[in-house]
Amino acid sequence: MTFTENETAVTYTGSPDTTAPTVSSTTPTDGATGQSATVNIVFNFSEDIVFDEGNYAITKADGTSVAFAATKTDSDTVTLNPTPSLDSAGVYIAIATGVRDMSGNMLAAPHVINFTIA
Question: Distance of CA 36 to CAs 24, 26, 100, 106, Å?
């Protein structure tokens, strides 16, 4: 594949990245109990990702949406900070979906974690 820019030919010789990112770990982990009402939800990905706050959600078990601020805290890490704090003794679901890596490959399937507040 050859690209021409300002009459200078540039040849790309590498293989394109076709590997979808995965979630390598989360905090809290799926099924975690006894979490603090001020817990931040952290998604760690297998590679650098493109940040878009719309790719994440937090809901109560009954489906009620929870407000949060999302930040890309590292090139492969996103932190969700619920605002205000979560209800005590509640069950919550956090979802990452539609996340893309730097080559445009999308997370193969939504990643869902369930956790309970103490």
Answer: 22, 15, 30, 31
Distance CA 36, CA 45 (A): 23
Q: What is the pTM of this model?
A: 0.86
Catalogue the E-assigned strands of the chain: 2-5, 8-11, 23-27, 32-35, 41-45, 49-50, 56-60, 68-74, 77-82, 91-96, 100-101, 111-117
The tens digit of pLDDT for each residue in 19-58 reads 999 999 999 999 999 999 999 999 999 999 999 999 999 9
Distance CA 91, CA 117 (A): 6
